[in-house]
Amino acid sequence: KCIMRTLKFLLQKEFRQIFRDPAIIRMILIMPTVQLILLPLAANYEVKNVKLAIVDHDHSTYTQQMINKITASGYFILSGYNASFKEGITQIEKDEADIILEIPAQFERVIVKENKAQLFMAVNAINGTKANLGAAYLANILRNYNQDIRMQWIQMPRFNDQPRINIEYSNWYNPHMDYKLFMVPGILAVLLTMVGGTMTSLNIVKEKEIGTIEQINVTPIKKHHFILGKLIPFWVLGLIVLTIGFTVARLIYGIVPLGSFSTIYIFSMVYLLAVLGMGLLVSTYANTQQQAMLISFFIMMVFVLMGGLYTSVDSMPEWAKWVTKFNPISYFIEVIRMVVIKGSTLADISRQLHIMFGFAIVLNGWAIINYKKRM
């Protein structure tokens, strides 16, 4: 009874402090909602409106057909039709072109006579993502155009005894390759982490700055009761943020998880314990809110950028893959995508769930041990 009474007192105090400050409510509830609405609309993996400068030394029928096929794809904007490569380079220097495609003289004659021809592509690589994807799109269009030409030249007999391979493919779980279905769950995981980790990292520090921590330290409240009292309110608010996030995903983007909501919430409950424990651990080390904010910002930037939201973990170097093993966000992003897109169950995410239990025990235990009551 004494323990429950102590926890009840601490929770009442924390909830009153939270709801007494309207700015905290806006930061916890309104800001993540606005971010979840805006960020998936901007975070698009597709690259469009690539500015293409053509340097055509041939001016043949084949080159005109090829240029028409490129511009008809919808990915490229013809920014210049130049007579020399120097003019194309000038366009790149003025940021009026992203890619130069140079077509050599007698291109049509060579390809008809020798059955092959060369093209030259120069790419502005200041924006590496746009350059790589734009060049890949253009190369793919040119390959398709080359295939079309070859098909025109081949006289197909009625019965062709030569072996042929026809490839058919399908996209499982995301058949239309809708990037919002891929990005919204990941962004929701990041927002939940940033809200939980940042707010709890400021909690104990704020008590230190306003002096109320000394009043708590002279009471017989045990350290683990104090940490629990700081953790539970933000744990509840984190689950509310998650619920609001899924409501926005349903109403704005039409995303409904294929898996069970109970699977998501069970994992999220354990995940929030780990993230809030990390925030409380930071708060026990920091002496001012400014210190806590800077430490949290550093940790969150590393965790988010190496969490697999924008870059696949499998594409990272070996040392980075080892870092992600100690990154809670990477597990949450993986799990929420598995449940939402694939329909995974608790049995499918049991490994991640056990790892998250380990994070929660270690981080909260560390926070309890590091918190020192001072007279």
Could you describe the 3D structure shown?
This protein is α/β, with parallel strands linked by helices. The protein is built from 15 helices and 4 strands. It has a 4-stranded mixed beta sheet with strand order 2-1-3-4, with helices on both faces. The model has no long low-confidence stretch (mean pLDDT 82).
Q: In summary, what is this structure?
A:
The protein has 375 residues and is of the alpha/beta class. The protein is 66% helix and 6% strand. A 4-stranded mixed sheet has the order 2-1-3-4, with helices on both faces.
Biggest sheet statistics: 4 strands, mixed
**What is the averaged pLDDT score?**
82
Rounded to an integer in angstroms, the radius of gyration calculated over CA atoms is: 29 Å
The ordered H/E elements are HHEHEHEHEHHHHHHHHHH
Strand content range: 5-15%
Layout of helices and strands, plus pairs?
Blueprint: H1 2-20, H2 22-42, E1 50-56, H3 61-72, E2 76-82, H4 85-93, E3 99-103, H5 107-114, E4 120-123, H6 128-153, H7 179-201, H8 203-210, H9 212-217, H10 223-253, H11 261-285, H12 289-305, H13 318-324, H14 328-342, H15 350-370
Parallel strand pairs: 1-2, 1-3
Antiparallel strand pairs: 3-4
List keywords for this structure.
375 residues, alpha/beta, 4-stranded mixed sheet
